[in-house]
Amino acid sequence: MAVIPYGRQDIRQEDIDAVVEVLQSDFLTQGPAVPRFEQTVADYCGVAHALAVNSATSALHIACLALDLREGDWLWTSPITFVASANCALYCGANVDFVDIDPRTYNMCPVALARKLEQAERVGRLPKIVVPVHLCGQPCDMAAIHDLSRRFGFRIIEDASHAIGGRYKGEPVGNCAYSDITVLSFHPVKIITTAEGGMVLTNNGALADKMALLRSHGITRDAARMTHEPDGPWYYQQIELGFNYRLTDLQAALGVSQMTRLDRYVHRRHELAHRYDGLLSGLPVRLPWSFPDAYSGLHLYVVRLELDSIKTSHAQVFGFLRERGIGVNLHYIPVHLQPYYQRLGFHPGQFPESERYYAEAISLPMYPTLTEAQQDQVVGALHGALQT
Ligand SMILES: *Cc1c(COP(=O)(O)O)cnc(C)c1O
């Protein structure tokens, strides 16, 4: 039986041709395809600088370093995210804390954030960076978070790994109107793919320069940035401790090709979500709620089981659907419940809205090539699991 996954890439002949063309060219990496991809995404998002890297995890790391996150500093994010949104702080030797979610959007709750900031101010432990995560592709309440950043003096990295193609107050996610840096992911389950890959976006030229160095060993060939005149035409200088976080030209060519279909992908995701909304309306599940200012990228379609109205458990519903070839998933296990984070001192009960969400959430299959027949199969199986 063919499994219907929760997400998957769409690779067309034109994508394959674009990658093969690079394979036959002079540059497999550090060639012209990477800047082309960066310019394509920067133009789409309406942002001044875009730097491609080999994953969103790397993007988060260099974003934190560029904002000078270091030992003794704090980074706050949502517990309902992939672990990478929090791990980036630990890479820099900094501390992590979490802000509970809004029970309607499942994104970081600005009211909870304000309350926690007031408490942190009293004990002198304000965060240096806050990382709002646009869960499922739905933008966070960025205007509210941005207002708080002015009042409490923190920097903002948007984790938009789910959200390219989405809009906030009518403007594209990634324009950094309410943040210092935005991070994108191009993993195959995400909205567009480069196999592995990510990007940092910013309107701040100094941050862009810093991240460009960090992406490639901290090495510059720009004489203006060197400590003395170049020794000769071969010369370069390492002026920071950087990494090899570069994206290849093969991947960038795939990204450029995928970008031509981005709007169609997101539109198709909205069609499928609308259809799910209708087909699931009678079931004992809570459907996704749309934040008024947001047009979601719709990376995920998450329903929450109304456990009081059904006889089966959350795990039994998962088991039932998986046995029938429906590749449902759960995004995410709250980060503070991971063993590694428990060793840092976090414990169950700290973020109750996130833990309630975790007890009820199911990601249903959602990707542009999902057919209506497959979607009917998903809905039929869910009816069976909920015995309706
Ligand atoms: C996928 C994802 C990441 C990490 O992306 P990679 O490109 O796989 O490193 C980070 N944050 C969120 C919210 C994600 O979904």
Automatic annotation (TrEMBL):
A Pfam family reported for this protein in Swiss-Prot or TrEMBL: DegT_DnrJ_EryC1
Signal peptide range in chain numbering: none
Biological processes annotated in GO: polysaccharide biosynthetic process
Domain of life: Bacteria
Catalytic site positions: 190
Residues where N6-(pyridoxal phosphate)lysine is found: 190
Keyword terms, alphabetized: Capsid protein, Pyridoxal phosphate, Virion
InterPro entries per the UniProt record, alphabetical: DegT/StrS_aminotransferase (IPR000653), PseC (IPR020026), PyrdxlP-dep_Trfase (IPR015424), PyrdxlP-dep_Trfase_major (IPR015421), PyrdxlP-dep_Trfase_small (IPR015422)
Gene3D superfamilies reported for this sequence: Aspartate Aminotransferase, domain 1 (3.90.1150.10), Type I PLP-dependent aspartate aminotransferase-like (Major domain) (3.40.640.10)
MF-aspect GO terms: pyridoxal phosphate binding; transaminase activity
Family (UniProt): Belongs to the DegT/DnrJ/EryC1 family.
Official protein name in the record: Spore coat protein
Organism in which the protein naturally occurs: Caldimonas brevitalea
